[in-house]
Design brief:
Elements: H1 5-70, E1 76-82, E2 85-95, E3 98-107, E4 110-120, E5 126-133
Antiparallel strand pairs: 1-2, 2-3, 3-4, 4-5
Length: about 140
């Protein structure tokens, strides 16, 4: 018995429908993969920036206090380069053994600043307040 021409057309259309459905499913999967990849990439960049920021803060925290510990009569300012970063500090004598330390840590243009109030420099450095500041 001869095949009716519409039977072939329906099979052909069903084949297109199946191919279209597969293409749509693959497109959605690719879109999800791309979305997760972009999100992961931004997360990595954010983590890296946070890591550098924490390094800059560590430099600022340690810089001036190290100088006071090494030389408890020190007042003035200095800049140290450590690895890929640097720190600048200023130690002010507030009378007696009181000192104020303004210190900035810089890594890859990320700047963190701390203001430290010291009440004793010998025999150990004693801190009364320690805070991160926007500016001195």
């Amino acid at each position: 018995m001869p095949q009716h021409p519409l039977d072939n057309k329906e099979k052909f259309q069903k084949g297109y429908l199946a191919i279209f459905a597969v293409i749509m499913v693959i497109s959605v999967i690719l879109l999800l993969v791309l979305s997760f990849s972009v999100k992961s990439y931004h997360s990595i960049l954010n983590s890296r920036g946070m890591y550098k920021s924490n390094q800059a803060k560590a430099l600022a925290n340690m810089c001036g206090l190290k100088q006071i510990r090494d030389l408890n009569t020190f007042t003035g300012s200095n800049t140290l380069t450590l690895g890929s970063g640097s720190c600048t500090y200023m130690v002010s004598d507030l009378g007696g053994t009181n000192r104020q330390v303004n210190s900035s840590g810089v890594i890859n243009n990320i700047i963190r600043k701390v203001k430290i109030m010291v009440v004793s420099v010998a025999p150990i450095v004693t801190v009364s307040s320690w805070q991160e500041v926007a500016d001195f």
